[in-house]
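Subject line: Sequence and fold of a protein, written as structure tokens
Enclosed: The protein record, placed directly beneath this head.
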Amino acid sequence: DAMGRAGVWLIVDEAYEHFVFDGAEHWTPQGPHVVSLYTFSKSFGLAGWRLGYMSYPNTLSGPLAKIQDTVPTHASVLAQHAGLAA
């Protein structure tokens, strides 16, 4: 894959994934060097709740685990329940 050979990652912001019109379908690029970021803010009216998730290849599991505990903010229990209901 060309991105892998070049050492490049594609980071995709999927905040508007549910905003499709006129029968169009949403498409997300996938591959071994693609990271997709999702949020509940836009589609489910949870702006300000800071709730989302990330899709990434298994090769990033180790490096991401190293930085996870240094992230200073975490979703509240209420926000997590709202996200599950959405």
